[in-house]
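re: ur question from yesterday

yeah so i grabbed the chain u mentioned. its 419 aa long if i counted rite. heres the sequnce exactly as i have it in my notes:
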Amino acid sequence: ACTSSLSFNFSSFNQDTNSKMTFQGNAVIDNTTIQLTKDGANVAGVGRVLYNEALLLWDAKTGELTDFTTQFAFLIHSHEYNYADGLAFFLTANYSSFGTPVYSEGGYLGLFCNSTIINSTINAVAVEFDTFSNKWDPRREHLGIDVNSINSSATVLWNGSVIVGRPANARVSYNASTYNLSLFLTYERTNLLPSSNYSLHYIVDLRKVLPEKVAVGFSATTGNFTETHSILSWSFSSNLQPKKKKLTARLLAGLVVVGVVILMLVSMVLLWLYKKMENHSGTETDAEDMDYDETIDHEFETERGPKRFPYRELAAATRDFSEERKLGEGGSGLVYKGYLNQPKLDVAIKRISKGSKQGRKEYISEVKAISRLRHRNLVQLIGWCHNRGEFLLVYEFMPNGSLDAYLYSTKKHLEWSVR
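ran it thru and got these structure tokens back, copy pasting raw so excuse formatting
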């Protein structure tokens, strides 16, 4: 089993502990302590104990690394002047089912295999309490931090008080933010010995040297010389907490993306509806104009006089209603000068403004009224045109101005017969 946090506390040990731990090699429970190596002439001995529940060291999905702290009290006692080899707290990728590594007695502290005998790579990170100086060690008893090798990455000299068997209290902690693996060791003052403290640390990203799930425990060994190794108490706590900021940022990014997609879809639907309504409105307007044109055609065809002109003919006569052909502007439209090829005649063409309902009414009324009138002094309505919303009136062109210009001009007087 493996959870995001691991926590336990053993102030002492008893037979019930067997269900929570795995014992390997020489390790046993002796009264209220865990005895890792046997008393007496137990040369080349190995003992290990591992907590059954694995530690989730880091999360592969998020890359988050756990903090952890473990505290334990231990005792190493030689009973003689010659002793070896030491004890270690470790994290390893090799679970309890793999058993104790072969050829790991003596200076290998039950952690790593003797590389001169067997070629094996074991992933383990350990804090060692080494009582014997091997060829790869400092020349005295020492504390060390091991990373995938028995050759320590960091060491500090240590007076282990092995001969007198003095209890020690150790705290090993790991800071996931700084990658700092640290050890603090203290001996309480006794009647014979003063208090003493030791500390050691090493920077290591455990994600690069260990898998997600690891086992935690203790190991101890003897070599040609012996000593006993006892664990008196042990507590451990970890808490793998995913960073809320990262999760919040990812969630926020996801919500933004979803929001943008929804907004785009809604915009597309609204645009489609607008286009559909616009096309429908345009179709209705065209149909309305066509019906309107047919009604006007029916009314105008009953009148006599003015004729209907094709729109293209009037557009050609005014050069497509160009600006230079514009004569003036009225309330309901513009007036353009034009020239008709058939009959060959200069004309004035009034173009009713599009959308002018009043202009349309005036257009119909003017065609009906003027077409009935015939007088030599009235401007003659020659014709008309309406085509899909365009309403045009064609008059005879008067090059000499309007009637009021003649009536009120001081230069020339109209005779009464003309009037």
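noticed a couple things. DSSP finds four helices and 23 strands in the chain. also The chain has three domains: 2-242, 244-290, 307-408.
anyway ttyl
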